[in-house]
Amino acid sequence: MPAATVVLQTAESFQTLTIRPPEAGIALQGRIRVPGDKSISHRALMLGAIANGTTVIQGLLLGEDPRSTAACFRALGAEISALNAKEVTVKGIGLGNLQEPTDMLSAGNSGTTLRLMLGLLASHSGRFFTVTGDASLRSRPMLRVIRPLQQMGADLWFRMGGFAPLAIQGQTLQPIHYYSPIASAQVKSCILLAGLMTEGKTTITEPALSRDHSERMLRAFGADLTVDPETHSVTVTGPAALQGQTVIVPGDISSAAFWLVAGAIVPGSNLVIENVGVNPTRTGILDVLAEMGAQIQLENPREVAGEPVADLRVRHSPLQSCEISGAIIPRLIDEIPILAVAAVFAQGTTVIRDATELRVKESDRIAVMATQLSRLGAQVTELPDGLEIVGGTPLVGTEVDSDRDHRVAMSLAIAALNARGTTIIQGAEAAAISYPDFTATLQRICP
Ligand code: S3P
Hints:
29% of the residues lie in helices and 28% in strands. It folds into 2 domains: 5-36 and 251-445, Enolpyruvate transferase domain (UDP-n-acetylglucosamine1-carboxyvinyl-transferase, Chain); 38-248, UDP-n-acetylglucosamine1-carboxyvinyl-transferase, Chain (Alpha-beta prism), CATH 3.65.10.10. The chain is of the alpha/beta class and 447 residues long. A hairpin with a 4-residue loop joins strand 13 and strand 14. The protein is globular. It is built from 12 helices and 26 strands. The mean pLDDT is 97. Shikimate-3-phosphate (S3P) is lined by residues 39, 112, 184-186, 189, 210-211, 333-334, 357. Shikimate-3-phosphate is lined by residues 39, 112, 184-186, 189, 210-211, 333-334, 357. Its EC number is 2.5.1.19.
């Protein structure tokens, strides 16, 4: 059987990924390890920087986003060893001791870096900070964190409409109870981090539960935190004293998601993805794929450093359409691009709703996925808050574009595995934001 073609070409800082499956198809086989969880990696670097003592991080994601966080916190005075996946040490400088950098901080492409860091910077009284990011980040909404921080007494300047670059004059903040209009772990974490240095009880209530990695890690570092699961509320009592810890970062379920869908849609596949974080606030993808008829088994479930972990086995099986909406959306928000690919290969019409947030991610993921999957021949209609996908139309390879969005680039690569002919993905370099070894792994599992 002729082998699949998976070729990555690099020209300056741009990459093009060419994928041509053999006519007889490719069965994906093997055991895979995905890189460390991005959300947990950011938080480990940040809490390590502001804690007392040394934090050791095993399994840190070496993607560009955590590199942006490390660069910012080095500029703020924390000593962070050279980044590697085995072991990174962070010598914490203690809460309230972030130093005023002599230059602008850059969060690169990373919304998590910028929004979480703002909570810390705003509460560092007497110090002045300026923060920016790349073109994508500078177009993403920051009012969602600016408004609650201003209610706490923060002094912030920003571009009209609430866009970076931002300037922050640190202040002593007041505790508030903030009712967030959106379920967002970035908003929640920003407020909790601001609350660490604020005397009294700072509470955030969200409309649905978003990922809870901040709560788990803040507790482990010694913060006084209470959670009310009924009302989706978290309260931090400040001032806190954080102590450095060992953080073992599990594999990122958002990266595993590409292989889960690849294994489910490519006939003859049988893949095991080892050591994946299966925190219930992140496993919406497993619930939806199970409902669609995917065969996914959790093997060897265990708890590692306060986070649930398992090996995930996926085998090919026919998929059915489903409806994805409501409270499950925050539990799979980053997986919607790859779930859209699953829907293209499912029988029936899949409807994704209540996902307006996708329009303000690294790209407008609703518009970009609708456009790019349509180019491949899929029947996809853009809805104001989601997508309608009529599955079952065979895809034909062509040139597509990631719009510099890492999750779009990788989702299109998985779609290409099941398309006839050659697919050329422009902007494939974006994968390095969260998954630098994506193409190497794809080459390894393609026979
Ligand atoms: C993240 C929260 C989510 C998610 C993002 C990472 C985090 O964003 O989409 O990739 O680490 O807190 P929102 O909080 O904006 O939903």
